[in-house]
Amino acid sequence: MRRRRFQKGSLQLRRHADRRVWVVLYYDHRGERRYHTIGWASEMTKGQADEKREEFMREVNGGVGRSAGAIRPPTVDEFLEQVYFPFYLGKWKESTAGTSANRIRHHIGGDLGKNRLEDLTLAALQQFLERKAASGLSFSMVDHLRWDLSSMFELAVSEKLLLVDPTASLYTPKAAKRAATDSMAIEDVERAMKSLEFREQVMFHLAVFSGMRPGELLALQRENVSADGKVILVRQRVYRGEINSPKNGLIRKVAAGPRTAAILRDWMEGAVETDPASYVFAGETGKPLWRSTLLEDHIKTKLEPIGLGWVDFQVLRRTHASLGHDADVDPKVSADQRGHGIGVALDVYTKSSMKERAAAAKQLEDAVFAKRKKKAS
User: Fold this and answer.
1) Whole-model pTM?
2) Of 176, 186, 295, 375, which one has the greatest count of Cβ atoms within 10 A?
3) Is the same domain home to 209 and 259?
4) Residue 131 structural domain
């Protein structure tokens, strides 16, 4: 008997007479399209109907631990396209969805896609990571693939497609190449500031001294900057021209030191429309600049002639962290400025005040500019 493929089923609304019902579409053992009525749409939510769909499809697919007869367990490709991506694409932000889906399809789907999910053991998955490391992929990429595998098998267990998750002991191979994590020295920051146009100088200040991300800067509106320029409310970010919520969905306040606040005020007074909704760093159309345009056309073109063409936005974030460390800024306060945690305990149970963040921003500026004055004298 021909073995049927694994199916997730398609939940849909259909009309019966003058009422709507939830149905699940699937294929029977002969490969013919069928549908099963779950219940009246007026009597259950989509979430409840989806739970019923899962229960029904487990019966169609044979369930876990039962003799499946003609039911074939899912391959990795089937699981990714019918279960994993439909679930995570509703959760991921657009930026995450694009990079993660491409990475998973290319590496995991490309290498393991034809394998049955239940046949992949810990040893086989570790060998997959070893091969990826040996092929020259960076430590970061291989580590992402390890996390992808863990999330896949965790979901498979949750969906009752597997009884055991084999990925708990996976590790990122030592052979994976660690990319250089350069940051700018104080002298580099000073040379960059002198080379950039005023708008990019302001953005550079906010990135290096206040830890703001490029998407946050490009989505910044006048109404989110305090009158004195010392407090910035990060409510949104922009990615490929689309405005969405901040990283991790967390709205936060960022403190700007006195020097950064001063040049930010100067920029806003001279170049930003008075409308509260105006973008602080808009392009010619009044819309946010694209990140790639800002970096390639307005920053790198100025920095390459002075030997700083290697500087990008990741470098600016590392520079904020490393210069803050050198200036003895509290690491928790520095992490709060950048909008990420340094550990579960500190991140969940400790929050720095705006007073502390303002002091940290001033402390960092003073540490940098005091050294410049010493050299000048």
Assistant:
1) 0.57
2) 176
3) yes
4) 76-158
